[in-house]
Design brief:
The chain has 177 residues and is an alpha+beta fold. It contains 4 helices and 7 strands. Strand 2 and strand 3 form a beta hairpin.
Length: 177
């Protein structure tokens, strides 16, 4: 007989103990931002050099605005990286992110179809990596965690693979009975 009891005490996601990202995650984020701003500033300097009318009109705004924009961006990166965290639990992986709009994503390990570990050139130099977890039915990653050590990513991948093998073994045993 099917029984569907109402749950009165829901578990709280705030009880999850999140582990912070790797120590070098902030450095990676800051360097990535600078790789955006340096060419942008270079392009603006070139436009000002070749277009005197634009330079006369925009020089004051650029000299004041660009440093403020870069400083605010760098401060935001500091806050953002410090607020991110992940938790690998017995049956799921949780990831929190966000400064203004905070988001907690919990992905059950039983739903994970495949995983990818990614390292860009800056990440390789800093021994960092990103892991992408894909669940059934999706084309894009359902969970992407950047700013982990490469070892953490490999350990997480191995944990998920072991979980899937244990789950498959349990399912096979239930079918045999």
């Amino acid at each position: 007989m099917f029984n569907n009891q109402q749950i009165m005490d829901l578990p709280k996601h705030s009880d999850i103990s999140f582990k912070p990202l790797a120590d070098k995650a902030l450095l990676h984020t800051q360097l990535s931002s600078l790789l955006f701003y340096v060419p942008l500033i270079g392009a603006l300097i070139a436009v000002c050099y070749f277009n005197e009318a634009f330079a006369n009109n925009a020089q004051t705004y650029l000299l004041i605005g660009m440093p403020i924009l870069v400083a605010v961006s760098m401060a935001y990166n500091i806050i953002s990286v410090r607020l991110r965290g992940f938790a690998v639990r017995e049956h799921d992986i949780a990831f929190k992110k966000g400064v203004i709009w905070q988001q907690v994503t919990v992905l059950p390990l039983a739903r994970v179809q495949h995983m990818e570990i990614h390292q860009g050139p800056i990440e390789r130099k800093l021994s960092l990596a990103s892991i992408k977890l894909f669940s059934a039915g999706g084309v894009s990653a359902d969970l992407q965690i950047s700013g982990l050590t490469h070892d953490d990513c490999k350990n997480m991948r191995q944990f998920v693979q072991n979980y899937r093998q244990d789950d498959a073994t349990t399912q096979a045993a239930l079918v045999d009975e």
